[in-house]
Amino acid sequence: MRTPVVLAAALLLCACGEGRQSVLNPSGHDALLVYDLAMVMFVGALVLWLLVGGLFVYVTRINPREMSRRLAEVLIIGGGVLFPVVLLGGLLVYSLPLMQAPREADEGMRVHITAEQWWWRVEYERPDGTLVTSANELRLPVGRRTGLVLNAHRVIHAFWVPALGGKVDMIPGRETYLSFLPEAAGTYRGQCAEFCGASHALMAFETVVMAPEDFEAWLTAEARDAAPPDTEEAARGAQVFAREGCGSCHTVRGTQAVGQVGPDLTHVGSRLSLGAGILGVAAPDFANWIAHTETLKPEVAMPSYDHLPAADLTALAVYLGGLE
Ligand code: CUA
Predict the structure, then answer these.
(1) Do 152 and 254 belong to one domain?
(2) pTM of the model
């Protein structure tokens, strides 16, 4: 009784979520190729298993007589040599070209992504060569192949957005490469797929696939400097940010904060998540994050600012949340 219950529960759990981070929900050209290959292998393996199992039952139960020498030779040479050579050769011819696709030269934009501990530095290369820096979120135009130039800072990480394509290691000192051709607008979750330290599991990001014109508009907005604080409380938050020295690690373009150690915060309030996929971006999320970084993300470089007076913390959260 127990086994069927466990199996049913596992199947139900598999159906959880809406496939935002699933290889079974391919929404990019490269993910679709991997999905098709997996299906061919899975169905093929099943057919082969049934065939061999059927043959075994036939010769041991249904017709257990001694075989003629000729039939045995046909079975051994045909089933043991010819059949696997033809089948595996066919699979090889079918699958080899698939390996090339994710690495082919990109025709569109390039995005440089560097894995840090434990967040993602994301830089969009514009046609004139300038970089637009962002973090912990990837935006892509639908229907265009975008090249992803992957690097890592200290240890090996792996870049993976299951719904859009394969997985590639990010290695310190060695550039690796991947490209995506998204086929459906939507938001897909990515996750670091190589153990990289205490907060490996807390190293995620959203990939937002947008209509090309929306993407261009977004990139233009992302390239702008931060808007100055528009409320008294936000202005106070900006003072707290400067006083606490946040700008020595973080950049807010258009201000004196030009730090390069942590994520660029110029438009942090317009992102979908905070702390690389672990919190939302409402003001309470910012306050929670700033005061409890070390609890929320073990061994993170940013210390918990739990000494801040509550009013300062709230003002700082309002300021950062307003950086849209
Ligand atoms: Cu980065 Cu695991």
Answers:
(1) no
(2) 0.86
